[in-house]
């Protein structure tokens, strides 16, 4: 959201007037620059890249991934789905518009301005870090922000070479090493694999809370696996009263209080929370109200329905990922390609025989991975899952209306999101690439 330009405020206009010195954030004119400290990115596969440090002077381990997003670096870094990952930005310059305040907007109290309360990734790798930033909403530089959240960054490395390497061999474990650690190459056993931990438990809310309590829309429960703030904001903007529940909350004990269930995005392996998948299976079997899942929520829906989830070689991260709609449902038209934003390492397995009562909703046009699932009309259910992020800040916004579709369906119980089972011949334009191997 911080990347979207807004009308200049009155105080910002004084930047060009006689009172500029009194109204401009002093760090814009006198930026806080990091000390010249060496840093390195070491990969478990043996490669090392050397540059300069910014942000925290701590050294951190994580899983090294890359993102093709060219805007909204603040939103990417605060996305809980990046928990435990070292984020390599392919965009050549990061930090040029600084970092805004994370205070909630007046119209959406209780929801942070960025995607969570703080930086979620373990480290940041950029080609060129902009320490002198310029944006009327900025309150600090990316260096100051990372230092405050104890997140190390490295600049001055060839991110194109790193990206090419990761594209060839897949995501790999790594370490951002700062200062004296930069010259020390870790032993293989020292690398930390975040996928071995329940990352969802780390980022989920610990206690239930309610957003928009006086809303006039339906009552929607959100199982929080690490939800992005803009998902909550998108539901609230539709008038819904939103109750956010911890990842391991027994929704079935309170389900009759709600008009719909939403399963959020989140980090790591969906099989790390199998107990939640079993509860969702019970919900699907016994409850006839609408259910919608995004990213991790989509994978949990698939597992609950009897599908297999697998770890992709590369994962899909960044903007402008094309997906093909196989069914019409609400605002979605079968046969149309939608441009989406994505951030996931795991996916549902594509198979010729989907479980009874289910059908693929979207396919990725690049790798043919499953980008969505939908309940069939014969099932009597109203359930949808998408692997991509309709709410993505910075765009694209092709599928943003999915939130309105879902909320409208929760209002009526049989709304516009119901599938009409229009099938598209996915081989009409030639063979589609096979999904990435696990």
Report on this structure.
The chain is α/β, with parallel strands linked by helices. It has two domains: 10-196, Glucose Oxidase, domain 1; 199-412, Rossmann fold (3-Layer(aba) Sandwich), CATH 3.40.50. The chain is 19% helix and 27% strand. The protein has eleven helices and 21 strands. A ten-stranded mixed sheet has the order 12-14-13-15-16-21-20-19-17-18, sandwiched between helices. A hairpin with a 4-residue loop joins strand 1 (38-43) and strand 2 (48-55). Helix 9 packs across helix 10 (296-305). The longest helix has 13 residues, at 274-286. The radius of gyration is 22 Å and the shape is globular.
Summarize the structure.
By secondary structure, the protein is α/β, with parallel strands linked by helices. The protein is built from 11 helices and 21 strands. The longest helix has 13 residues, at about 275-285.
Q: Helices, strands, pairings?
A:
Layout: H1 10-13, H2 20-23, H3 26-29, E1 38-43, E2 48-55, E3 60-67, H4 73-77, E4 85-89, E5 93-94, E6 99-100, E7 123-125, E8 128-129, E9 138-140, H5 142-148, E10 152-155, H6 159-169, E11 172-178, H7 199-203, E12 209-211, E13 219-223, H8 229-237, E14 241-245, E15 260-263, H9 274-286, E16 291-294, H10 296-305, E17 309-325, E18 337-348, E19 358-364, E20 370-375, E21 383-386, H11 402-412
Parallel strand pairs: 3-4, 4-7, 5-8, 7-10, 13-14, 13-15, 15-16, 16-21
Antiparallel strand pairs: 1-2, 1-11, 2-10, 3-11, 6-9, 12-14, 17-18, 17-19, 19-20, 20-21
Helix pairs in contact: 9-10
């Amino acid at each position: 959201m911080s990347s979207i330009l807004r009308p200049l405020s009155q105080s910002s206009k004084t930047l060009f007037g006689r009172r500029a010195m009194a109204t401009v954030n002093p760090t814009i004119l006198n930026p806080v620059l990091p000390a010249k400290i060496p840093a390195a990115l070491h990969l478990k596969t043996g490669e090392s890249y050397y540059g300069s440090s910014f942000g925290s002077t701590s050294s951190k381990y994580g899983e090294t991934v890359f993102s093709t997003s060219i805007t909204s670096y603040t939103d990417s870094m605060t996305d809980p789905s990046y928990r435990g990952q070292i984020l390599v930005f392919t965009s050549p310059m990061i930090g040029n518009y600084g970092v805004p305040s994370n205070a909630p907007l007046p119209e959406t109290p209780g929801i942070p301005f960025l995607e969570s309360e703080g930086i979620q990734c373990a480290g940041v790798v950029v080609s060129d870090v902009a320490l002198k930033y310029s944006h009327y909403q900025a309150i600090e530089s990316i260096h100051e922000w990372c230092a405050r959240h104890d997140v190390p960054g490295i600049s001055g490395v060839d991110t194109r070479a790193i990206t090419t390497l990761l594209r060839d061999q897949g995501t790999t474990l790594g370490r951002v090493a700062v200062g004296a650690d930069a010259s020390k190459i870790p032993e293989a056993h020292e690398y930390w694999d975040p996928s071995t931990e329940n990352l969802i438990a780390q980022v989920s809310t610990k206690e239930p809370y309610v957003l928009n309590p006086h809303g006039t829309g339906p009552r929607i429960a959100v199982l929080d696996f690490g939800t992005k703030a803009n998902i909550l904001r998108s539901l609230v903007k539709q008038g819904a009263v939103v109750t956010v529940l911890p990842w391991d909350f027994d929704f079935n004990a309170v389900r009759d209080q709600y008009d719909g269930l939403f399963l959020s995005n989140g980090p790591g392996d969906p099989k790390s929370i199998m107990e939640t998948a079993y509860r969702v299976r019970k919900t699907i079997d016994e409850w006839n109200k609408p259910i919608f899942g995004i990213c991790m929520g989509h994978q949990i829906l698939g597992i609950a329905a009897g599908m297999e989830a697998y770890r992709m070689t590369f994962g899909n991260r960044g903007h402008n990922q094309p997906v093909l709609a196989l069914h019409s449902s609400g605002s979605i038209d079968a046969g149309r390609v939608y441009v989406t934003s994505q951030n996931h390492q795991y996916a549902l397995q594509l198979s010729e025989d989907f479980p009874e009562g289910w059908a693929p909703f979207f396919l990725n046009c690049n790798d043919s991975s499953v980008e969505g699932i939908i309940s069939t009309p014969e099932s009597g259910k109203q359930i949808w899952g998408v692997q991509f992020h309709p709410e993505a800040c910075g765009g694209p916004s092709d599928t943003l209306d999915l939130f309105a579709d879902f909320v409208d369906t929760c209002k009526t119980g049989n709304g516009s999101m119901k599938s009409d089972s229009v099938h598209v011949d996915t081989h009409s334009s030639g063979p589609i690439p096979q999904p990435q191997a696990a």
